[in-house]
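Q: Can someone sanity-check these two? First one:
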Amino acid sequence: MLRRRSFAITPVNNGDSAERPPDGAILEDMTDRNYRLIVEGELGDYLEPTLHGMTLTRAQGNTELTGHIRDQTELQGLLQRVSALGLTLLEVKAIDDRVERRTGGGAADADTK
């Protein structure tokens, strides 16, 4: 006879609320970014419509997919399509600079604050 076990998840608070990001900051970091995915093999142009707006660049036997991803749901959808196509995912990376995105400019903006 199998016994059922129940587990409780207890949130951990280390008491250091000074390091906690302001409300909405985590959500802001997870949205509206440019990403680069590298998959094994050189994909044909016929797959581009399947990958919804990603730009395909082939080099050294791999394909780099670059493009704008609005949110985590869209990123997960793209990753699921890559998996459904049977592709081997080698790398996923956000390629935009968070500081420039938030301030709307480069280093000059950071110096004035």
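And here is the second, same format, sequence then tokens:
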Amino acid sequence: MARPDTHNPPRGSRPRVTHTVGEQRGEHINNVGRDQYNQYVQQIRQERASFLAAVAAARTRARRLALLGFLLILGGGGVYGWVLLRSVTSIFDTVSSASRDPDSDFSANIPDLLGEKIHGVPIGVLGFAAVAVGTVLMVIGIVMHVSTTARSRRGDTEFINALSMTPYPQ
């Protein structure tokens, strides 16, 4: 007589599945099984999305700061250039009128190289200060942009490494 196969169930019947767990000890025990890795990947992707959103916001702030600095450089440079050109033109006018009338006293007509004063501060000093502040803001914005770009690259490699690891030791 043929011996029945004890490892394979007869055709048409479904094998009975049992899970028997004896005593378990440990700090964290997870018997989830097949869905555990999917949940881990979903959590990593959510963390990456929030990380990339924070990096994008920081990069936008950095760009705006650099743009503000650039605009301050342009505006302050324009004001300072206008004051200097106006002063040079005034000096040329004074020199040309002195050549026509050499007996006059022209020391009172020599213009101030920093321009007219607004509330006691020369316009040229305001333009120069705007250029200085704009330069500092632009440098800070560029440094912030470079550092956020480096953070996003580092985050990409960490994401790839996290997906290649399993959430539980084998």
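A (reply): Looked at the second one. Residues 35-100 form the longest helix (66 residues). The mean pLDDT is 78.
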